[in-house]
């Protein structure tokens, strides 16, 4: 019998690709959704990549409640715990931290009770980053972000505390279930559906012309397909048990991404602004006009990078170049009509021609 893998949060961007790739590799997949009404949209999204007939099932479970998790884990061999509160901003930090931390513990309790072989949990590279945004250099999985650092945005704190809680739980557990965590960078690449764009929304804003200029922020770009691949390698490799794996990609500045889109897409990239906004302008706008930008200001000019040597050596993982991930992302957004492919007609989100 094919192994059964539970993927949490099947309607999410990364989770949807996990479901599709597991099915493509011959696994049976069960995925959690918050309500039965979401099952159809998940099935339709996955069907654009692979035929799920007879091998995809659903369980209703939410990270914020105990109900449903024991049923979801029944008969499961492995878990990819991908679901997490979305968004890097929140007026109430507890709205991110509580569900992320408590949700991870709910999944682990149910998984260990069910005798699951291994849980692979999606954390984030910024759970293994220096607390000081001014720090440059290269760090690895041995570093833990300080969750008490007052400069941390709620999302970064939530991912750190959730992963710490997961490892803390495993320290008190004495049984066969194993835990592995994967810490991705900025996730781009093609989409399965326009329903949930996740981080891909950045590329959509660039393509539409809504982003009139780009801040001096660097991203370690990883393609969603490569991120799914490292999750499955972490799920199946004996060497991965009890390990953290950074899954970041090539470091690029947002201005480099903009130039890749503008120059690599021809007319389809004509609305992309390649103008880099000075740091002081971003800070002024964040202070007086757009408070939502305040959380990105500490990252301006930061060039801390992460080493993926561990994933490459132990798992044989090889991510694709950032340029390929970004361009494939753009082509997919255009194909799904998230962004108009005719530069002759202005995007509905485009405020005007603007400088480049």
UniProtKB/TrEMBL annotation:
EC number: 1.1.1.219
InterPro entries, A to Z: Epimerase_deHydtase (IPR001509), NAD(P)-bd_dom_sf (IPR036291), NAD(P)_dehydrat-like (IPR050425)
Family annotation (Pfam families): Epimerase (PF01370)
Swiss-Prot/TrEMBL keywords: Oxidoreductase
Region (Disordered) location: 337-356
The keyword Oxidoreductase belongs to this UniProt entry's keyword annotation: yes
Family (UniProt): Belongs to the NAD(P)-dependent epimerase/dehydratase family. Dihydroflavonol-4-reductase subfamily.
Protein name, per record: Dihydroflavonol-4-reductase
């Amino acid at each position: 019998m094919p192994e059964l893998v539970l993927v949490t949060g099947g309607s999410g961007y990364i989770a949807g690709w996990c479901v599709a790739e597991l099915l493509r590799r011959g696994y049976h997949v069960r995925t959690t959704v918050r309500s039965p009404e979401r099952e159809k949209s998940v099935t339709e999204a996955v069907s654009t990549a692979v035929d799920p007939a007879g091998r995809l099932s659903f369980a209703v479970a939410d990270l914020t409640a105990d109900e449903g998790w024991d049923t979801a884990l029944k008969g499961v061999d492995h878990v990819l715990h991908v679901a997490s509160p979305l968004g890097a901003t929140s007026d109430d930090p507890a709205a991110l931290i509580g569900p992320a931390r408590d949700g991870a513990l709910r999944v682990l309790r149910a998984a260990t009770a069910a005798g699951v072989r291994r849980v692979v949990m999606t954390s984030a590279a910024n759970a293994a980053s220096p607390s000081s945004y001014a720090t440059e250099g290269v760090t690895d999985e041995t570093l833990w972000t300080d969750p008490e650092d007052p400069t941390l945005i709620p999302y970064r704190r939530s991912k750190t505390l959730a992963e710490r809680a997961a490892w803390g739980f495993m320290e008190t557990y004495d049984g066969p279930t194993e835990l592995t965590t994967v810490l991705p960078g900025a996730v781009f690449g093609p989409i399965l559906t326009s329903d949930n764009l996740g981080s891909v929304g950045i590329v959509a804003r660039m393509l539409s012309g809504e982003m009139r200029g780009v801040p001096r922020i660097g991203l370690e770009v990883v393609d969603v397909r490569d991120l799914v691949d490292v999750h499955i390698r972490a799920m199946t490799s004996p060497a991965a048990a009890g390990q953290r794996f950074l899954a970041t990609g090539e470091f690029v500045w947002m201005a480099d991404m903009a130039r890749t889109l503008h120059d690599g897409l021809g007319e389809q990239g004509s609305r992309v602004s390649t103008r880099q906004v000075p740091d002081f302008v971003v800070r002024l706008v964040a202070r007086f006009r757009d408070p939502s930008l305040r959380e990105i200001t500490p990252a301006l000019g930061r060039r801390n990078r992460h080493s993926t040597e561990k994933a490459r050596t132990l798992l044989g993982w090889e991510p694709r170049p950032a340029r390929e991930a970004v361009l494939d992302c753009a082509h997919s957004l255009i194909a799904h009509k998230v962004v108009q492919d005719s530069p002759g007609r202005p995007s509905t989100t485009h405020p005007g021609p603007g400088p480049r």
